[in-house]
């Protein structure tokens, strides 16, 4: 299980682009660092197509803590080095893609832990948003806040029915960071709708997300969604990959520049917000409300 990403064929050596994902797919887990075994992700790469599937596996909610986010980020970076062609991001859970930041780790945490969490979130977003890989979020469960961030940072979103997706920060009294706002605007058909959504903490159903343009397709099963994800990646021919990647990065460059200029400010806002007694009190109540559902 604990295998590093090695022996991945260079995409340039692949002779055939359009092949179904299966037969020669190898499954292995991603390492969190060169010496540490992975804990929360599994990566499978199809040798023939050059398509990787990264599966989030941190039960029960794929809540994003620093270690988990570091693993995801390193997987993407490793795949880039191996000239992998496309990445499908999905969840091992049958009902939660990701519930966003691990709120339990935000509660009564010391400053160093809060800082570690936020920097890991910033780094993960930056890596996913800027990667030259063709990225698809296969949203097979609820995707809230940071979970939605993973989806909107990807290039294409395919969602299974009857789940929820959206960014709920203002509902809990928090401003949406400008880089997340820009990422959301980048994919929504209308800036006006994006502003409405983020200011009102709108959470969509899968079906309404499709109508609004927040997701691109629905699929009735994970298998169908995998096929559609592979089809999206395959729709870009080998010939266009380099030009495509540069064009994608040009589209995203200004958002990335703004982020770099405000990175420290963004961290400072998060730290000061999370350390407020009123926020910690609210967070405690919020966590209790999640538990009270049982
Ligand atoms: C008070 C909020 C503070 C926010 C702090 C952020 C400050 C920065 C602002 C700007 C940030 C932008 C970047 C992103 C930020 C975030 O991601 S904040 C996280 C916001 N996420 C949520 O509000 C989601 C909360 N969860 C849910 O709504 C539901 O759990 C669900 C995802 C819709 C799933 O519902 P359901 O299938 O009914 O499962 P549950 O029973 O509710 O949950 C299962 C278990 O998972 C635990 N859990 C759920 N969410 C989280 C979480 N975010 N962190 C940690 N743990 C979580 C839940 O407690 C259950 O646990 P068990 O009781 O152990 O089973």
UniProtKB/TrEMBL annotation:
<keyword id="KW-0496">Mitochondrion</keyword>
<dbReference type="GO" id="GO:0005759">
    <property type="term" value="C:mitochondrial matrix"/>
</dbReference>
<comment type="function">
    <text>Key enzyme of fatty acid beta-oxidation. Able to isomerize both 3-cis (3Z) and 3-trans (3E) double bonds into the 2-trans (2E) form in a range of enoyl-CoA species, with a preference for (3Z)-enoyl-CoAs over (3E)-enoyl-CoAs. The catalytic efficiency of this enzyme is not affected by the fatty acyl chain length.</text>
</comment>
<dbReference type="Pfam" id="PF00378">
    <property type="entry name" value="ECH_1"/>
</dbReference>
<keyword id="KW-0413">Isomerase</keyword>
<keyword id="KW-0809">Transit peptide</keyword>
<keyword id="KW-0007">Acetylation</keyword>
<dbReference type="InterPro" id="IPR001753">
    <property type="entry name" value="Enoyl-CoA_hydra/iso"/>
</dbReference>
<comment type="pathway">
    <text>Lipid metabolism; fatty acid beta-oxidation.</text>
</comment>
<dbReference type="InterPro" id="IPR029045">
    <property type="entry name" value="ClpP/crotonase-like_dom_sf"/>
</dbReference>
<keyword id="KW-0276">Fatty acid metabolism</keyword>
<comment type="subunit">
    <text>Homotrimer.</text>
</comment>
<keyword id="KW-0443">Lipid metabolism</keyword>
<dbReference type="GO" id="GO:0006635">
    <property type="term" value="P:fatty acid beta-oxidation"/>
</dbReference>
<protein>
    <recommendedName>
        <fullName>Enoyl-CoA delta isomerase 1, mitochondrial</fullName>
    </recommendedName>
</protein>
<dbReference type="GO" id="GO:0004165">
    <property type="term" value="F:delta(3)-delta(2)-enoyl-CoA isomerase activity"/>
</dbReference>
